Amino acid sequence: MNAVAEDRRLRLEALFRQYAPRVLDYARHRGASLSEAEDVVSDVFMVLARRLDDAPTGAADVLPWLYGVARRVLANQLRGKRRRSALQDRSQELAVCASRADQDLASVATRDIAIRQGLLTLTEKDREALLLVAWDGLRYEEAARAMGCTHAAFRQRIARARKRLLAQIDDIRTYEDIDGESGWSGLESGEL
């Protein structure tokens, strides 16, 4: 390694040691989870490594420059989250609408809102298990492979998720429920 490359490496390492905790705190104070904040630190120092010659050299200027990069990284993360959430919402709405087109719209809307709210209370893995089966149409064996677990573990996860979801939405009644039809028969009968 030549002297210039070695000097760059040493400078980058020194800046990382000195400022990585501050960049991590910056991201955490703006609502990032620990893993998201760690990703921000990684991205910020990747940018610094690429643009080391453009980065300020004065001690008073380095941290604000790093914070500026972190701000843009966080904005990109937020935009990505919003896009994923919007795409998920649209795909869920399409799936629900297609499968229930002939049902009373008020009952469907009430039930769908309750289910979505209930799903948000589940852990990510439990929610994913239910969605793989209910909305993506996978059999238990296929969904277990998709989640990287055994068939038995997946069946337990589905049972736990179904129980938790039913507990969350149990108090919600739709027009169909009032007329004596169970709006939750799919969940109660074990279709999920």
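(ticket continues) Second input and output from the same batch:
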Amino acid sequence: MTKTALPYRAEVVGSLLRPEYLKHAVEAADRGQITEDELRLTQDRAALEAIALQEACGVDVLTDGEVRRKFWFDPLTESLSGYNPEVPAPVPFSAGRGKEATGPPPLLPAVTDKLGYRRNLPLEEYSFVRRHAGTPTKTTIAGMTYASVLWVPGYSDGVYPDRGEYMEQALELMTRVVGEVVDAGTTYVQLDSPRYTHMVSEEGRENLRRVGLDVETWLGDMIATDNALIRRFPDVTFAVHLCRGNHRSMWSVEGGYDAIAEQLFNDLAVDRILAEYDSPRAGTFAPLRFVPEDKTVVLGLITTKEPELEDADQLKARIDEASRHIPTDRLGLSPQCGFASTLPGNLVSFDDERAKLELLGNVARDVWG
């Protein structure tokens, strides 16, 4: 196969709200009240509904809604063994000005045992979607930046005294995971990489220091590590998704892309950049001037954190504003993140989600035809 520029203008980031019947099934499976096969049938039902919703709304490239996941990073931590899901997260979340966080913060899994290959969750997702979708699909996985923060001092050093040894093994195993999905036919892989944006603020940089990372070298090291994965598959289109945290409508860091744009946009060997731009937390479009001519930017202008529906004309005006820095024919549109990066989902309704996806499809058709 040969990689070609993708014409996708209306794109989702990955996750959709989980139906209540699916949440109940997950809880029942955790308690041992239903079998894994029964849970899988429930997940299949939710996946079919997710596919139908995206296709009805005019989304150009879709996922299964990530309905087989509890967390967005499950393709890493469920596909590989060795991670402990009960480690306190060193990254705080904020509900925003005037709001209160709902529920406890998510727990960050730390590597506490030698890594091993357990299953291929992205392959399970892709195989189902490929059989049932009439629309192009993509595979979403956690980028290697996220793997890097799961080596947590005090938890991980007993099994991996050196973070580098852990990262080499994580890269090797995730290359196997991606390779099996590529062999099955996927041509588009999205790397979810929220930790890149931790470099845009002092608060975010401190989050990285708290897991023992050197913020002076980490960005370049992680670009090189992601590139080592990407370059193993030269015929596959790769994207990076950049956000600032997403759990129960909360966020973790803020700041424009200015501090990382020139290095990240030029050096990271992706073809598409899915960039959060739904609020002032993401800064201005000016850093898009650093995007090289062979890359497309998908503007995350539609928020998944708030129920209010964006105005179509205002979205078009923002796309026009972005085009002052990068031509419109190298732009696309998406929500800024998933609707449910974690199982509980953001504080929006299914009607809100549908309305935002319909808006996505309609604006993309109006702008790009």
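Agent notes: DSSP finds eleven helices and eight strands in the chain. The first strand starts at residue 80 and ends at 84. Closing as not reproducible unless the customer responds.
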